[in-house]
Structure formats: structure tokens, C-alpha cells
Write a structure and sequence with these properties.
Elements: H1 15-19, H2 24-40, H3 45-49, E1 52-57, E2 62-67, H4 82-101, E3 105-114, E4 123-132, E5 136-145, E6 151-161
Antiparallel strand pairs: 1-2, 2-4, 3-6, 4-5, 5-6
Helix pairs in contact: 2-4
Length: 171
């Protein structure tokens, strides 16, 4: 396990790709936050998942990430392990919530439906903010196989907005 899912931890998105995104400023905020976490805590699960930003828009309230599973992500049937799928949703939704609100968030609930085995090699996570309140963020996410765009899993997520960052979690 290299902790970066085969990606360069210092550059999860190439600079030329940022300009092509729907919201380059939001993309820079997401990348900056993700890099700070990777540098501070490189061996944590959320970093090992190795999500790569594909597109985003603060105005349209969405993010899209690519997920390329390493061998450690697979179960005995060569599909992506359900715990890893849950972590992909948690990581992508948490990062989206934190950068959108500019506050630290904590997972409150994830309701995941596993629709088909994730046997492919590249997946797209689409996250949409459905409600942003003073205390809670609600999101909807889908993971699809990038080869055929068929949805493999979906998730309703709720994240609590914390009033301040706990001392040990400041970035």
C-alpha cells in the first residue's frame, strides 16, 4: 500500500485540467484542502482511497471524482469491498461538505445501496449537495463504472457542521 492509490499525492489533478472544470476556483479549494490532509496524515484511509477530482461547481453544488481501486480494495470475488465503497462515499462527501461550507464536518449518517458488483478498474463518484443548513449538510452520491456508466452504488449522506475544528484536526 503506497497510501496514494498509485497517484502522486502532491498533484492529484493536473493544473491544465483545473481550467477545464466548471468552477476552477472551487476546484483549487478542494485540491488545496485535500493536499493539506494528505501532507498532514498520509497514511489515513481517506488518503489511501486516492480520489482524483474530475469536475466541480460551487454554484451547481456538485463534485465528481475518479476512484481507481488498488488490490487492497478488492474482496475475495475481485469486486471492490463494501467497506471501501462506503469509505469512497464518506471521503468524497466529507471533502465536498467541508470545502463548500468552509467548516469542519463530521459524518452523521450514510445510507448506501449496493446495486451491482464493482468489478471494473475505474469508477466515477458524483456528489450533489441537496441541502446546506446551519448545522447539517445533506448529499446524494452515485458511483458508476467509467467503462459503461452503469451505477454500482448510491448513497444518501448527512454531515454535521461543527462549530470549530477540534484542536487535533486543524488543517
Amino acid at each position: 500500500m503506497n497510501g496514494t492509490n498509485g497517484k502522486n499525492a502532491d498533484c492529484p489533478v493536473l493544473e491544465q485540467n483545473i481550467a477545464a472544470m466548471d468552477d476552477p476556483d472551487f476546484a483549487k479549494d478542494i485540491i488545496r484542502t485535500n493536499q493539506r490532509v494528505r501532507e498532514k496524515e498520509p497514511n489515513r484511509l481517506n488518503n489511501m482511497i486516492g480520489l482524483t477530482l474530475l469536475n466541480c461547481s460551487r454554484k451547481d453544488q456538485f463534485t465528481e471524482f475518479e476512484f481507481v481501486p488498488d488490490d487492497w480494495c478488492r474482496n475475495g470475488y475481485e469486486g471492490v469491498h463494501g467497506g471501501v465503497i462506503s469509505s469512497v462515499f464518506d471521503t468524497g462527501m466529507g471533502l465536498t461538505s467541508e470545502v463548500y461550507t468552509q467548516k469542519f464536518v463530521s459524518t452523521s449518517s450514510l445510507q448506501i445501496s449496493f446495486l451491482r458488483a464493482m468489478l471494473g478498474s475505474r469508477f466515477r463518484l458524483k456528489v450533489r449537495l441537496t441541502h446546506v443548513g446551519r448545522r447539517v449538510v445533506n448529499l446524494y452520491g452515485e458511483i458508476s463504472d467509467m467503462k459503461d456508466e452503469k451505477i454500482c452504488a448510491n448513497c444518501l449522506g448527512t454531515f454535521m457542521i461543527l462549530p470549530s475544528r477540534p484542536r487535533g484536526l486543524q488543517l
